[in-house]
Structures are given as C-alpha cells and as structure tokens.
Design brief:
Elements lengths: L17 H12 L7 H11 L6 E2 L2 H8 L6 E10 L5 E5 L3 E5 L4 E9 L5 E10 L7 E6 L5 E3 L4 E10 L14 E10 L1 H17 L1
Parallel strand pairs: 1-7, 2-10
Antiparallel strand pairs: 2-4, 3-5, 5-9, 6-8, 6-10, 7-9
C-alpha cells in the first residue's frame, strides 16, 4: 500500500528548506530566543510543527498528481467560530477519502448573522500534528481575510492534497485519518473599528 515510488528529483512543497530552517532555528535559539518569533513560524510552516499545513503552486501540485499513491486517507473537517464573530461557519461535508497525491476540493459555508458588515480571518491546523508537513493546500480561504455583508452567506473552497512523500515516512505508517480544523475569528482591525463605533453610542446612552 505504499504506492508508486517517488521519481528521482521529486521535491515535496517546502521540504527542501527543512535543513536550512533547522540550522537557522538552532542559531536563533542562541541569544535570540525572544527575537525569533517570525523564525519560529517559518519553522512551523516548513516542518508541519504544531499541525501547520504546507502550500503548493500549480507546478508542485501537478508533480504530486503524477505519482498518486494507492494509499488512502480519510480527511475530516472541523469548524469553530470565536464568540466575538457573529457568524455561522461549518463544512459542507464532514469528510472525504483521498489517495496520497490526489487533489480534492471541499467547501465551507459562512453566514453573517449580524446586521453589520463583519470581517473575519481563519486559523487552521491538522491532526495528528505530525501529518502537517504532508498536508498541502493549493487554494484556501484562510490565506485572506473574509468580509461578509449583513445576512450574506458564502461558500468558501479549499483545494488540497496529501503529499505522496508521506508513503516514504514510516513514522506515519499508522496514520489513516487526518483532521483539518479551522477557527474563524473576527479580524483584529474589524474588532477595533466596531468598538470605536460602539463607544459614542454607549456614551450617549
């Protein structure tokens, strides 16, 4: 069930940077611990630490699609909404089955239940956390802020695949299910604007 051997020269998205980032992280930990937050996030993005997913362009996605494996994964979807965001947010389907390298598109629906324009932004991760370095997004609503008018609903796509390189990593041999989770928060600037507009009204009352 390991699938096709990966062709010589196949490079999983961003994995080629792992050694460089590891070295930079070690250097950053010496005397620069508190100044290395951006480096830490770069490290997460490259290695999948904390369930951080990867990104791929069209060329990388095509290379992965050329070596689709017969190893299958159940990919589940989870959606949460912060209490400060007056939206309903949920996946259109709870799970899909995908072979390693096979591209899948799913949709999440968001509805603005308030009477005002609201901007939100999503954070995300995958579990098990160690699978993050092999979960690759081609397109995702989480890359940008989302603004919904009062009562507006929108279907938001996610195009992804599981990197076929996962079949060569025996540390993940037991992984059969991957859960992609999103949490939508009200955008920080949007929250500040809302508070600024609300303050005069509160004072008047």
């Amino acid at each position: 069930m390991s699938g096709k051997p990966l062709p010589e020269g196949y490079r999983p998205p961003r994995h080629g940077l792992t050694a460089l980032v590891l070295a930079a992280t070690v250097a950053g930990m010496i005397g620069l611990t508190y100044a290395s937050v951006p480096l830490y996030y770069l490290f997460c993005a490259v290695t999948g630490l904390g369930g951080t997913t990867q990104r791929a362009d069209a060329e990388q996605a095509a290379a992965a699609a050329a070596v689709v494996s017969d190893r299958e994964f159940t990919v589940r979807f989870d959606a949460m909404t912060a209490s400060t965001l007056p939206w309903t947010f949920k996946p259109e389907q709870r799970q899909v089955t995908a072979r390693a390298g096979e591209q899948k598109m799913v949709f999440f629906k968001a509805v603005n239940n308030s009477k005002e324009t609201v901007t939100g932004r999503a954070t995300f991760n995958v579990t098990p956390l160690k699978s993050g370095q092999y979960f690759v997004k081609i397109a995702c609503f989480c890359f940008d802020e989302q603004t919904l008018q009062p009562g507006q609903s929108v279907d938001m796509p996610v195009l992804f695949y599981v990197d076929p390189a996962i079949t060569q990593d025996h540390n993940l041999d037991e992984v059969k299910t991957i859960t992609l989770s999103y949490t939508f928060y009200r955008d920080r600037n949007d929250t500040a604007d809302a508070a600024a507009h609300a303050a005069p009204a509160a004072t008047t009352n």
